[in-house]
Design goal:
Layout (H helix, E strand, L loop, with lengths): L5 H22 L4 H31 L3 H36 L3 H6 L13 H25 L6 H26 L1
């Protein structure tokens, strides 16, 4: 028996390698699952946020006394919190799609040049930065919701409250600073 020629071996190896690379390239499409789920989660958060806002407005129409106003404001802020989380899920889904699957062509066609970078995700680092900014905003909103109903009964609680407000201000300042760089 004759051994296989070098050309045949190289050709077989190249063909096998090419087929495997095509398989790997197509396997990236599995990331459609987190994209779709995060977009559905985003819609769910928008629906929950809208329900919270409607609940707060209906509460306002029923009762306008001062004691319930703090609770209603907390409910409104809870709705905003859902919206911010929905935006984070939207950015995540959009970013994963652009990074792993394909560029989103309609964005380039229908949006003016100055607004195209709003959701432009060019790297994992830019996705991380956009998500972290939105998450910090969500945490600020959650902290604000908690602080509205915070009862101050001692000097220690007053200092904790002031420390919380200071940390929120520093967080907001750092987010603003990251956008100016």
């Amino acid at each position: 028996m004759r051994p296989l020629s070098k050309n045949f071996q190289n050709s077989f190896r190249n063909s096998l390698e090419k087929s495997f690379e095509v398989l790997i390239w197509r396997f990236r499409l599995v990331s459609i699952l987190p994209v779709v789920m995060s977009l559905l989660g985003s819609v769910g958060c928008f629906i929950l946020g809208t329900a919270e806002e409607l609940k707060a407005f209906s509460g306002m129409l029923k009762s306008l006394d001062h004691s319930s106003s703090t609770k209603l404001i907390g409910t409104m802020i809870g709705g905003i919190d859902y919206y911010v989380i929905g935006i984070a899920l939207l950015i995540f889904g959009y970013g994963i799609y652009e990074l792993v699957i394909s560029d989103i062509d309609p964005r380039d066609e229908s949006i003016p040049e100055r607004r195209r970078n709003l959701l432009s995700i060019t790297s994992l680092e830019s996705l991380k930065q956009k998500l972290s900014n939105v998450i910090v905003v969500a945490l600020i909103v959650s902290a604000f919701k908690t602080m509205i109903s915070f009862k101050i009964n001692s000097m220690l609680e007053l200092l904790q409250f002031c420390g919380g407000v200071t940390l929120l201000a520093v967080s907001a300042w750092l987010i603003g600073r990251s956008h100016s760089d």
